[in-house]
Specification:
CATH topology of the largest domain: Serine Threonine Protein Phosphatase 5, Tetratricopeptide repeat
Oligomer: single chain
Radius of gyration: 25 Å
Number of helices: 26
Strand order of the largest sheet: 1-3
Number of domains: 2
Number of strands: 14
CATH class of the largest domain: Mainly Alpha
Strand content: 5-15%
Shape: globular
Helix content: 40-55%
């Protein structure tokens, strides 16, 4: 735990400032204070026996601050595919078959195990209830938050305004941990305060609370905290990544949207999920008022973000590049440009490993660089998801040859900023929207940066067998023939020897485009007019170089009236979210809250025939795996031992 906190702080300092002896000594004092803390009980809500030691920690401002870092340290790292399901355990990304080298180069096989249907209730994968199998113990995190809130008054040298701010931050953390559990498990126990170890055993047998009660408590915590949070971070050296008003309002909006979504707001889905006393834990409703409440929350979050200076990112590099490349960098930089204007909440864990496993090899000399993993493989499904250059789905574009998308075509001079001129690749890769070229690395595709900043001389990648970015051995290759360009900073450099220099960026837990698209969703489900629904969504499209929805569908779609109906707009909004937020871990959770996972995840995972060297043979669609998804997979299983220890807990359906 201590080293995780150290690395978290150093990651911020590494990017923003040079190290100095004074700051390092200060931080080592924090580590010393943290080291005196003993391990805590495994019960969900019990104060640990070492209460006297805890009191000693809180006898000064520095001690209280060290415990504040402890509360932050339990934040899930959504930018690490080894420990969160969002990035690599759905249908966006695929990994090569489970072998020892997958564990060696990827770091673990938990995401693979989830993909392949190995989830179970004996030892749940990515267990965030008890903190096992790559998950963090979020109930321990909540207990730590409660300890802080109970003990912070002991720090007599802590100024009142700073104490109020820290209390607000910890309330936000406590709210977020409850939200994270709600998203995974559905109705969960609410831990408002810790109970002492001598409490009546009956008080320790916790019940799962109804979703509505959990949501109400999360919102209550955030509302209490908001007044004492800053609008923006002023002390960037110490506090980048910590809670602000925009973050708190955004989490509140996301919580209310989760409550309004079909997973918790549709009759007949989880009717059997009841407490031990028979109380329904999920509302058996289709309540539009929940969407209206969520819409107000999103509008407030957007307003506060604007007040704080957040705006859709634009690439501001001084280099003289073409508009085509700059447009791609507008999209790529919205994720990888550190602490940029679009970032509402960035998780300041180091993203170096993530970039290594996404980075393509450009030249034969890159083979010996052990840091360049060339592993994270977007599925063919994702390559087909992005719009045509006209901003409509490729199977709807009147002028785009969808039926022949797998035929071979040669790139002309007009394609040179997207595909290497003269290169032969499939029609699927031509005439696509800028977000496609910014997000996915494909055979023959241009990959700007990495030491080549003249976009007339940029790198391209070759992904056929025995080529630099292709399958050359039994390890470090893309199983589909695609790579994730979007998550790699363009200034990273593959060294001549074994080194790889990656630029730190905080992983975007929330960015402004996410909120804009959530506004469209809530406005549509609330029954608002199309102009209101598309108000912010069209701004996201404009940044991507596309016409607004109504204009694009009128001019180019085979179904021009789709934006005129609530159901039609719903499908447009969903696809827009899956495109704009591709490979950021959002799709995984969106498909679940929409109850759409069975619609997508049960379809085959496909890629190209990566073992072939010739163009004609390589571009044969290869079915890699047939995933399964059942109704039980919408909610995580609770470990059976927990149910045996507490007969008040009820297992999720079908587990």
């Amino acid at each position: 735990m201590v080293w995780a906190i150290l690395f978290r702080r150093l990651s911020i300092w590494e990017y923003k400032y040079h190290f100095n002896k004074k700051e390092m000594n200060k931080f080592y004092r924090y580590l010393l204070l943290l080291a005196v803390m003993c391990s805590c009980s495994e019960y969900l809500d019990i104060v640990p026996d070492n209460a006297r030691t805890i009191d000693l920690v809180f006898n000064s401002r520095d001690g209280a601050e060290s415990f504040l870092f402890t509360c932050y340290n339990s934040l899930p790292n959504d930018g690490d595919p080894r420990s969160t399901p969002g990035l690599a355990a759905g249908d966006e990304i695929w990994l090569y078959p489970k072998e020892e080298n997958l564990r060696t180069f990827f770091g673990s096989t938990w995401a693979y195990d989830l993909d392949h249907g190995y989830q179970n209730s004996n030892s749940p994968i990515m267990d965030y209830w008890l903190g096992r199998n790559a998950g963090k113990n979020l109930y321990k995190a909540i207990r730590d938050c409660n300890i802080f809130l109970e003990k912070v008054d002991l720090a007599l040298d802590l100024k009142d305004d700073e104490k109020s701010k820290w209390i607000a931050e910890v309330k936000c953390l406590k709210a977020y941990y409850h939200y994270y559990l709600l998203r995974m498990y559905g109705p969960v126990p609410i831990i408002k305060t810790n109970l002492p170890t001598y409490s009546d055993p009956e008080l320790l047998r916790l019940e799962r609370e109804p979703v509505s009660k959990v949501v109400e408590y999360i919102v209550e915590l955030l509302d209490e905290a908001i007044a004492d949070l800053p609008l923006v971070i002023e002390n960037e050296l110490e506090e980048l990544g910590r809670f602000t008003k925009p973050i708190a309002y955004s989490i509140k909006a996301k919580t209310l949207i989760l409550a309004a979504s079909p997973i918790f707001n549709r009759a007949g889905i989880f009717d059997e999920l009841k407490s031990s006393t028979g109380m329904p834990l999920v509302d058996n409703t289709d309540n539009v008022e929940k969407w209206k409440t969520a819409k107000k929350a999103v509008e407030k979050a957007i307003s506060v973000c604007h007040e704080a200076g957040n705006s859709l990112y634009r690439f501001k590099d001084f280099r003289n590049i073409t508009d085509s490349t700059r447009q791609k960098m507008d999209i790529r930089g919205s994720v990888t440009d550190p602490w940029n204007s679009e970032l509402v909440w960035g998780l300041p864990f180091h993203t170096g490993h993530l970039q290594e496993i996404c980075q393509a090899r450009f030249e034969p000399k890159d083979d010996g660089n052990h840091s360049v993993k060339n592993l994270m493989a977007p599925t063919l499904r994702m390559a087909e998801l992005f719009y045509s250059e006209h901003g409509v789905p490729i199977n709807q574009d009147k002028e785009w040859d969808f039926a022949n998308r797998f035929e071979i075509e040669s790139a002309g001079p007009e394609d040179r900023y997207y595909i290497r001129e003269g290169y032969q690749t499939v029609k699927l890769h031509f005439d696509r929207e800028p977000r496609f070229y910014a997000s996915i690395g494909f055979d023959g595709g241009i990959w700007y940066g990495h030491g080549k900043f003249d976009d007339n001389k940029a790198y391209h990648i070759d992904t056929k067998a025995k080529q630099p970015a292709g399958k050359k051995s039994s390890e470090k290759y893309s199983i589909t023939g695609y790579l994730v360009k979007k998550l790699v900073n363009y200034e990273n450099v593959i060294g001549k020897e074994k080194g790889y220099t990656s630029q730190f960026y905080p992983f975007p837990a929330i960015r402004l485009a996410d909120l804009y698209l959530l506004h469209a969703e809530t406005a549509n489900e609330s029954g608002d007019a199309p102009d209101v629904v598309f108000k912010y969504l069209d701004q996201v499209r404009e940044r991507a170089g596309l016409l607004g929805v109504k204009d694009a569908w009128t001019k180019y779609s085979k179904n021009p009236v789709q934006p005129e109906t609530l159901e039609g707009r719903r499908e447009i909004i969903k696809q827009e979210r899956m495109i704009e937020l591709a490979f950021e871990g959002q799709r995984y959770w969106d498909l679940r809250r929409w109850l759409d996972a069975e619609k997508y995840i049960t379809k085959p995972i496909r890629g190209w025939n990566i073992t072939e060297e010739s163009t004609g043979s390589f571009y044969k669609v290869n079915q890699i795996y047939k995933m399964s998804f059942n109704r039980r997979d919408y909610l995580w299983p609770i470990k059976i031992s927990e149910l045996l220890n507490n007969d008040m807990l009820i297992q999720n359906p079908l587990w």
